[in-house]
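Case study.
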Amino acid sequence: MPAVSKGDGMRGLAVFISDIRNCKSKEAEIKRINKELANIRSKFKGDKALDGYSKKKYVCKLLFIFLLGHDIDFGHMEAVNLLSSNKYTEKQIGYLFISVLVNSNSELIRLINNAIKNDLASRNPTFMCLALHCIANVGSREMGEAFAADIPRILVAGDSMDSVKQSAALCLLRLYKASPDLVPMGEWTARVVHLLNDQHMGVVTAAVSLITCLCKKNPDDFKTCVSLAVSRLSRIVSSASTDLQDYTYYFVPAPWLSVKLLRLLQCYPPPEDAAVKGRLVECLETVLNKAQEPPKSKKVQHSNAKNAILFETISLIIHYDSEPNLLVRACNQLGQFLQHRETNLRYLALESMCTLASSEFSHEAVKTHIDTVINALKTERDVSVRQRAADLLYAMCDRSNAKQIVSEMLRYLETADYAIREEIVLKVAILAEKYAVDYSWYVDTILNLIRIAGDYVSEEVWYRVLQIVTNRDDVQGYAAKTVFEALQAPACHENMVKVGGYILGEFGNLIAGDPRSSPPVQFSLLHSKFHLCSVATRALLLSTYIKFINLFPETKATIQGVLRAGSQLRNADVELQQRAVEYLTLSSVASTDVLATVLEEMPPFPERESSILAKLKRKKGPGAGSALDDGRRDPSSNDINGGMEPTPSTVSTPSPSADLLGLRAAPPPAAPPASAGAGNLLVDVFDGPAAQPSLGPTPEEAFLSELEPPAPESPMALLADPAPAADPGPEDIGPPIPEADELLNKFVCKNNGVLFENQLLQIGVKSEFRQNLGRMYLFYGNKTSVQFQNFSPTVVHPGDLQTQLAVQTKRVAAQVDGGAQVQQVLNIECLRDFLTPPLLSVRFRYGGAPQALTLKLPVTINKFFQPTEMAAQDFFQRWKQLSLPQQEAQKIFKANHPMDAEVTKAKLLGFGSALLDNVDPNPENFVGAGIIQTKALQVGCLLRLEPNAQAQMYRLTLRTSKEPVSRHLCELLAQQF
Amino acid sequence: MIRFILIQNRAGKTRLAKWYMQFDDDEKQKLIEEVHAVVTVRDAKHTNFVEFRNFKIIYRRYAGLYFCICVDVNDNNLAYLEAIHNFVLNEYFHNVCELDLVFNFYKVYTVVDEMFLAGEIRETSQTKVLKQLLMLQSLE
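After joint prediction, the assembly is written out as follows.
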């Protein structure tokens, strides 16, 4: 029954299309199109009124020309006219023209509202559907403003035809997604839920999508949908393959509707009502049982439809994560698919199993498939399947299989696609560290990584091995021996030279007893690589050499010779030259004792989190490492492998030598331990006391370096005020001045500026934040010529804030001379997330009269943002993970300032998140990511800002792992635009 | 949710483009070219799914035509794969060739709107869709 046939309807159109197809060249095509455009233009302009058919034909030709990629700048009015035609075919072409062209001409929308209104009111189901489809296809805010209120009524009206209900449900969905504020919730919502019971399966199919979307935002309003969805699902699942007639697809009853219902159920926790839950579990079991039955058809469509339901069922089982029996059955089912001949099924099984691996109930069951997965990694032809296999191996790894998995991944790395090498390297490094029983295995693994994929071993990975070796004396000798051997290779990667140089410089003495690795041999081995290395590596090696002079006095003459050589002392690179000069002098002037102190072994690194894990999280979004962090399936791992932390005493009472080495503020994991450390070392040696932490007011210049995060155990210890300012009780201070909020808002996206000014006093702020710490300078300027007396600024923590934010202040002079400025330093530590800023109360006497002023201190939670770069894919994955309704906060608001993209960018950066390019498909939108660092916890935040220049509105969406934070950030940021 | 539907031939000519989210015209052109590039290099041993930007493409090839649906990453792959087949299978298209899609481009949109709307599956029953399309065809 060829219902679609050539030339059916408009002959002129068919002729025109044929002509275009016959054009031999692009030029000929353009010529033909221009001729046609001229023809149509003259027809539209002519005196003779065109009949509906001609109008339809010409508009359709214009549409065809547009779809060929040419601009259309006329004909819109004719298209709009077609909407008021009584003939379906004319109306349809009019609507189609508008739906397709509307992007390029939004003026059009205003012109058609009337026609749509008429069609919606026409009671003619065909016309109503055309109008609804047009609204759904355009989906703009203007459409929402005009129609959002009408559509719920059409949807639930008793006399609406089924097809109209279907279209109305999805039309409403589109409007709700575009502008949720425009769709009024009301009594219709209850009736929408009951559409799940509708006799017409098409209506149910459309309604489920609408309900799924609505319930994500308003879970409580829609929770009755759970039991209705369960009973609907149960009826479908238990029906025979022919019961549903029209809705049976290759012997599978209503596959798409089943999938949609299962997805709806994933918006909610398992049903509380035992009867409902029992019925649901029965459904899930039936689906799993059916998967074992022989297929009713050999066609792939049959098995695809069946498996679509099966995979969605498994998703729901994983979502509930509460039925061990079902989880294990799901796992066994997926295990069968791992060896299926269909690539699609193998791919989906690997993907699905990855989530099963993180459930404590099914982790063991997943592990039994390890050989199959390893085989997939080796043999699959499609790279995306291999990628899934690698993901799954990572997810199923624990202490029992770590060695096998790591060695397989290493083997895979040799042939892995370039695009995924870095990720594999990170994964191997993390697994090796996490599950190392003896650290020699860990060291071997990392050195293998460098050997196999040196270019893909990022700084984090080789810093990490140095940190671990430094912190664990049981592995130092082995590490020295192994790097020494690795360096024997004729060609070794520069990263190997770096690791080797650092380790031998620290622990070379542990293998010096063996004549095969005597000090001169070690030195000449390293030095043989020197000339081929980059400046950074050579700088590191020079530091190794000076350490050698301390470790092995017998190498002193040789090394001094190397340092003295013209190629070092007069090196064009300033860093190398400086090191050579200073190390040479140091080795000549310093006594053995001094040398031994200065060049002592590095103290253990303070440890919070593996820097590699942080990097993988940055790559994959903050949730990526969660399966690993989560120690529940391997509780012993924390005891052994978490033992990386140094004993607190090492850090909180820094020994003089540690201080001398510039380690009192241990470099953050990401800072190069060697180059930065060595750089500081020199400065500290020659400047002596100046490098001690100064307790007095710090010079501005030292501000940043002073803020290097101190050891976590006692973050404030070094900065502590000898006399912490006593907080006056809240009753002692007045309420904040009325404009305090406004003043605070000015500082949400910036750190410096004038906080307050009146005729007497100006208060300036300069602040700097790093991780969960901040330092703020307040400058109080006396604008008068009279001295202020009893001047006392204090910081007050209202409510719970005391437990959330620690602020230490230094006292300032009680007198401020006329025209003078005093400075106050505040050290701030964010302990956990907080919502209200601390208050700053300033009191003084001016000319005998007491003055008091209370302001809000510009410390808001976003100051502790650490920007996080991530790729688009990771962003969206993470975004999806934060899909619980309470994790999201959204605001739609009018622009208060001109909408300038550059200004917006600057504000978002000032807000503290990273701005991610090429993430949002719409380049007008802004997308950001960051982690709020507090002492107690980290909160990952994702944000998206969608400007609508036409409406002068913004929509701001924040998703964080913590509900109040989402809301608070959303409010803070919304006030900035 | 479906982000867009594309029907392309092997040469990359677009036979249908249906968008369910806002893109400007340049972006649409870029997407069309990218989809063509990622889909045409794949063979029968590959999956019918390709990661694509922040989404994924579910595609199926019928003779010289590629039917591609771009959906969210957590959408059900097989359900959309069969949705393509359900769409193509429609009696309304019985024995239809690429050329018919060209000449009747304005009707194809109607079929799409019957089966997919607002990026969601609207109707899956072959019988119901066909009945509706025949009814519309009988209208003037």
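Observations recorded in class. Chain A has a mean pLDDT of 83. Residues 922 and 946 of chain A are 9 Å apart (CA to CA). We will return to this complex in the next lecture.
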